Each structure stands twice: as C-alpha cells, then as structure tokens.
Amino acid sequence: MSDITREKLEELSFSDFDRPSKKNRGKISPFLFVSNIQNLSDETIKNAFLPFGNIDRIIRDESALNSVVVCFINNLDASKNAVENLRGREIQVDPNDPNVKRIFRVEYSVLKNKMSDEERKILQHSSNKKSRMEWPSGLFLVNEFLTLEEEKKLVQELESLPWSTKIGRRVQHYGFEFNYKTKHVDGPEDSKIPAIPDFLKEIIDRMSKLGNPLVKSNLQSNRSNSIFQFSQAESESEAKILQNPIDQVTVNEYLPGQGIAPHIDTHSAFEDGMASLSLDSQSVMEFEHPNGEKVAVYLPRRSLVILTGESRYVWTHGISYRKTDLVDIQDLKQDSDLKQKYADALSRNQPSALIERHKRISLTLRSVRKAKVCDCKYSDNCDSQNSKISLPDRIVDKEEKNSLQLKEEEKLAPTDIEKEFVHKFYNSIAPHFSQTRHSPWPQVEEFIMNQPSNTLGIDVGCGNGRHMRLNPKVTMIGCDVSENLVSIASSKGCETLVADALLLPHRQNLFDFVTCIAVIHHFSTHFHRMRIMKELIRIVKVGGKVMVSAWALEQGHESRRKFEDQDVMVPWKIPKNLKIEVNGNEKEENGKEEVKEEDPKDSKDEKGRIPDEVVQRFCHVFKEGEMEEMVAQFPDVELVDSFFDTSNWCVVIKKLR
Questions:
Q1: Which residue among 80, 315, 458, 530 has its CA within the 20 to 30 Å range from the CA of 623?
Q2: Within a 10 A sphere around the Cβ of 143, how many other Cβ atoms?
C-alpha cells in the first residue's frame, strides 16, 4: 500500500517516477507506467483502467506525449489486476468503433528516492525562478504587435498565396529563398523568388520604426526591461532596435507537435537583427548559451520577438517538438488572448499551466548580408571566422562548392572511422555484445507487436536478432554490416544477411514496416546519416512505417554517460579472460554478461589487478530536434511520432507516396 496521500499526489509530476527498468520491474506498485497512448485522451485511458478500481490520478509525460502514469494509491490489487489483464492485450480505444484497438505497454513504476517536502518546495521554487531567469542580451519581445483584426487579415493574405511543401511542411519565401541544406540564401540568379508583397512591407515598416527602450532610459538589458506592449513602443527613435533593413521573409506553418531544431542563423548569411512574428497560436522559444545555460521565452500570439547581439549571434534558439507547453503563470497573466481562458489556473495561483498549441504561422524576417564574410565580435560562433564550423553551415563560393563535390560512389563508401571503429569493432566484440543484448527494447517491442498480422518487416542493423522474433503474427528478416553478429542471429533461427545500410540490396516498396534501432548514430557524416534515412524510406511500402532510434546528447537520469560533444568515442570494456578476438588477439571467455562502459585504464588498479580490455566505438549522438529536422527533408513522409526514451531520441515516420 502506498503512503502517498491524494494531496501529495497532486504535487507529483511524471518525472518523479522511475521508468520500468531491470532494477524495478519486479516491484509491485500502485503506480503503472503506461505507454503507446499517443493521441489518446485521459478519458479513454481512464476507461481502460476503471474496471480494476478507482483511479486517483493520470499523470502525463508532457515531453514525449506517449506515456502516462496511472495511479491507484489505495488499491494495490487494482494495480496488479490491471497489469495482469491489460499487458500485451488489444484494448478498444474508440467506444464507437470496436475495430479501433491499441496494445498498451503496462509496467509497474515506482517513485524515485524522494527528498523532504521542504526540500521539494525549495527545488520547485528554484526551478520556477530558473524558468524566469534573465534573458539573453539583445532579446526583445513586443506583445500585441498586431491587433486581432490585423492578424486575421494578414493570415488571409498569406493563405491566398502559393506554399511550398518540399521540406515536409508549408513554407513561403520572399526576397531571397532560405536554403535549408546550405543554411544560407539563394539569390535571384539561383531561383525565381517573388519580391516581398506590399502587405508584408507594411509589417516591415512598422518593425523598422521600433525604438530601443533601453537606450532612451539608459537601462540594462534584462527580462523586465525587454518586454513591452506595441502601444507603448517608441517610434521613429534614433536608437532603433533593428539597425539593418529587412529584405528577406520566410513564412512557416507549424502544426501542433512540430518545432524547430536548436540553431544559430548563419552569421555570413544574415546581418545582426532578425525577428519572428507569431500568428494564430502562442509558443515557447528555447535559448541555450554555449556554456549550457538555458532560458525559455514565452511567445504570445500576435507577439514579435527580436534577436540582436548575443541573442542573435551566440545563443541557439529553437522550439521543441511537442503539442503542449508548460507556461509560467506570470507569462500567462500578460497574455490578453489566453488569460481569460485559463482564469481558473490564475485564480488558484498555480506556478504554471499546461497550454495546448494550435496551428501557428510564423514570419521570420531578416536582413541578408551583402558582404561574403561576417566580422562580428563573436568569432567562436561565426562561420566566417571559425573554420571548425563544418560545412554546410559555412557558406563557400560556388567554385569552392564545386571543388568539394565528391562522386556519389565515393560518398557511399564507409569512412575510415566507420571501418575501424564501427565495422571492425562489432565484428571483434560480437560474442560479448550478443551476451549483453538479450532483452528487447520495450518501445521497439510495442511497435512490432502493433503491426498487422501477415505483414513483412525488416530490422536494419539487427545485431543478434533480439527484435526479430517478438511477434509470431508477422515475418521479419534482418541485416547487419557485422558478419559475426549476423552469424549469431542466424544460429537463433533468424533469417539474416550481411548488408550495409548505406546500400541496402532490397527493392523499393518491399516491406510493410522497418526498424533501425541504435544504428544511425554510428555513421560519421551527415551525408551518410541522411542516406540511411533515405534507404529506410525507399524500402518501406507506401503507408508503411519506419521506426528509427539513436543515442541522445541529452542523457537521462538513468545514464552515467555525459557527452561533451556530438561526435564521440565510447569505450567498451571486455572482461579479462573473455575469449574473443580483439585486434587479432584471442581472449578467453569467462561467461560474464553485464557490460560496464567506462574510461579505459592504462595501468594496474590500486590492488594490482590487470584491468579489463577496452575498445572504442564511434558515435554521433543526436541532439534534440536533429532527427526531426532530418525527416523534414523528405517531402514524401509524415512524422507520426517523436519521443525521448531511455537516453535515446526516436522517431516513427509514415511513407505517404
């Protein structure tokens, strides 16, 4: 029986619970971790669990939207019965259609080791304070930049014009076209881009007259001084916020769940000063400094956010891929469009409220740099001054671009890093690796178990085949670049072959579903990672789904790894006496199964023992939004789901045509 009261339960969030793992999987608990519930309402989930007892609370994972914790705090029997009756079974999720069913993943969850109530309140207070910390220098927010009538008219004008969908969502460009591959702009000689229409010039003219309120009042740049109503803004001031004329406009449509990967707009492409106008929906823009400091900035509907100085050149900015935002109550009080709708939350003095996103149209307004180079004072972040910023983030002349173009066949060949620290690595440690990979990853198991009967799937990068025999109602084959892992999978009765994911031997539109788990992060170039995604999409049927996962730069609490960079070498410890071949030397096997990956030791330990053998493998760990950004480059697919789970970023995509 749980000692948590209903009052304390209301204070808990999803992050207060441990996800199912080996250490807590056998612990019977009144808290149930339930996943594979994306797009289902709390009411639907509640109806599935009500037959077993009264539910005290359903707590959602707002960061991923595909998991909840169902709480039976005073009824352990109800929790046990729910697990026994619902785990792995089809559940009707549409009361009006018995054919609409879903297989929930149901496991026991436990509360993390908790601090005292006093410590919790201190932590919550500091967390709330952190969300409202000082803004990046040079950042301004103009609330109610447009009236409701002006917004309506502007959206109508934009909707009447043609949209491009070549990046997977609706986009318009004016003046210059932003090139999503080079992170630069294409000029008139590259493409026929329409001039900025008159109705947008009116918006630009209004922006250009905004005076800098800090200069007139001799104020410091901080959060409280950088937010103001348009009606209070200075006009025709000599100290204008935007010093350079706007000549490039990109219009983006974002549906709920879509976002923007963290980035800095290319220095050499655009001058200082850029702006974003939010139409039809609010959002939260997240800024991050190179030192790791993060700030979330609430963008109300009809607001204009302006980035200058450090906020433009040093801090990355992005919008997370989710359908809701947790908004500070103080921000909500300043939102004239939403404060009435969320009056109840305001009256109860909650620290924050969960706000649903709607379709949002964003106008990004920039000034194209006429010179070829940027000479700003932020040289570490400048592609003109820092050669370490890799292509295509650095713009180069067309002649230099042509000289850098390699033949397609050469690009598709494995790099030296991939040969040495991926191919050779997995062939060397295959037996030991296989010993440690015996349990299927639950999210992959759910994906495979949800496939219709009599369908054909493939696991690209199948390893020892642990995911290939989960669902007896489907047929799965596998492939892997490691001959030794393929041999192990074949010995278990799996149908496998040796193949490189860069050039799969299968015809297009062959498979009903595809999995590619913990593979794409082993490729050392962006071109190779994009090529794998292209191959996975090529071989799946129209209407079929592809699941891809990769290690995350942002490791979860359960991980002991902390990555400083995205391209890293990850050590693998081989227990001494293990009989495998490493660099041509045969080792003895002692049957030890557990793997501990840690930094190698180059001498005996303090007790004089010889350390275990350590070999290295290459990984490109993915940052938040990176995989979604890759998917957006393919116009013929739809992003069905994206989520973070057990220190991995994962996407599920559907082929449309």
A1: 458
A2: 20
